[in-house]
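Deviation from plan, reported transparently: magnesium ion complex.
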Amino acid sequence: MTVDQAEMLRGLMRDSSLQADGLSAEPHEQPRPKLAQALAISSGKGGVGKSTVAVNLAILLSRMGRKVALLDADMGTANADVLCNVMPVHTLAHVVTGRRQIEEIVIQAPGGFSLIPGASGLAQMAALGTAQRERLIQQFARLEQAYDVLLIDTGAGIGPGVLGFLSAADRVLIVTTPDPTAITDAYAVIKTAHRQNTHLDARLLVNQANDPEEGRQVYTRVANVCRKFLGLDLPYAGCVLSDPHVRASIRNRRPFAIDDRQTQAAVALSALAHRLDKHAAEPEPARTGLLRRMTSRLVGG
Ligand SMILES: Nc1ncnc2c1ncn2[C@@H]1O[C@H](COP(=O)(O)OP(=O)(O)OP(=O)(O)O)[C@@H](O)[C@H]1O
Ligand SMILES: [Mg+2]
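Because the crystal trials were delayed, the predicted structure below was used instead.
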């Protein structure tokens, strides 16, 4: 972000009386209800399996009794809606312009979770007008009050759109394959996100590994580099093996977690869902909504 952009954003913040986390409490403000825990699912390289992981995690967390929303923030390329065989009519773009309330764009997806079709450029909150941005922030916060977990399929790479979500999410799941370019790009995302948010809570999932040993080796390499160069502890989120069943479930547009319980992919993601859920149950400090945190961070608030 250039100095000019930062200045413009600061101006917008002043105009809309948006405030940084914790500073916006009015004297008579009611205590906020608990907001959904936000988990961003991201990768350096495209096509590594983010959307597959996101959709199936959403199903597994729903089965555990959590109210789960999956924000498809990577609209435009074949994504969560395609994997779930649903067709969004309205997106967050309609919410931004005030044509729809956020509840009206939510789609009930097979497997028991809610899919929220994003809008391209959603993460570039800075480009929105003040009124539109504020409307989106408020509508989104309402949604977060209704759910326990908010998964965000961010799309690949280190563009500002993706980084906004990574720095504002409570936790980040980075997906890589054993492919050397995917590993290098995964590290680049972690490094850039860590630079923006030194409290980054990230973990690494290795997808399409040939065997568990390969998954563990890939993890160890990335974790060692993160420890050495960033001083960052990167926990292992496990590995999902390269599996024709997974490929078939994608082709058939029926997420494997709906039917499979015993396949390696289902067991690995189920274990991850339980670990994530344990965290979600921990008490949390009062927080503002995800989009407000994104805006606050954009302006360095
Ligand atoms: N565990 C797996 N076993 C076999 N194939 C897999 C596995 N995971 C993903 N794939 C293959 O990888 C492809 C890409 O998966 P997916 O769409 O989830 O990736 P993505 O990271 O969301 O991609 P994009 O960056 O384009 O959004 C799938 O269509 C499927 O063919
Ligand atoms: Mg995807």
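Residues 50-51, 74, 79, 153 surround magnesium ion (ligand 2) (CB under 6 Å). We consider this an acceptable substitute for the interim report.
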